[in-house]
Design a protein that fits this description.
The chain is mainly β. It has helices spanning 10-20, 76-85; strands at 29-36, 39-41, 45-46, 49-57, 63-70, 93-101, 111-115, 120-124, 142-147. The longest helix is centred in the N-terminal third of the chain and has 11 residues, at 10-20. The protein is globular, with a radius of gyration of 14 Å. It starts with 9 loop residues before the first helix and ends with a strand.
Length: 150
């Protein structure tokens, strides 16, 4: 399995929350996403500021919601192409965080991110269902997210 920035497992996600910019403040907004086999459903755009990401797995397989901040000038399509082709993503992602959930469950904790105005993120699931199986991202489990300017 290729070790991409979102290819970490659940315990590692807790360590990465601070990388994105975990900020505890009064009343962060919430953004809810649903994972299925093999897609994310949820908002395409969000306002900037502290946001708690929630993730529910409505599929029949385990899924993760990896959230990666794209470097300026990188598009979601470019990031997806790199993931699909197994290319290095070091020059694509600036930071990331992760929520993992077994099938049929909802993560009972959120991923708090201070969404940067005018920046783009991607939601991604890099899980594989076994050795030599296709990562979910290559099956389409990838979604762009644009943060509106202030
Ligand atoms: Cu998945």
């Amino acid at each position: 399995m290729r070790a991409g920035p979102c290819g970490l497992r659940s315990w590692g996600a807790l360590l990465l929350v601070g990388v994105i910019g975990c900020r505890v403040s009064a009343g962060p907004r919430e953004a809810s996403y649903v994972g299925r086999d093999f897609a994310f459903r949820g908002p395409d755009t969000l306002p900037p500021g502290p946001t708690v990401f929630r993730f529910k797995n409505a599929g029949t397989l385990d899924h993760e919601l990896g959230l990666a901040l794209l470097r300026p000038g990188v598009t979601a399509a470019q990031a997806f192409a790199a993931e699909r082709d197994g290319a290095s993503v070091d020059s694509i992602y600036e930071a990331d965080g992760l929520l993992y959930t077994p099938f049929g469950t909802e993560v009972d904790m959120g991923l708090t991110v201070d969404l940067q105005p005018g920046r783009s993120y991607v939601l991604i699931c890099t899980l594989e269902d076994g050795p030599k199986q296709t990562p979910h991202v290559k099956l389409g489990m990838f979604k762009g997210l644009v943060v509106r300017p202030r």
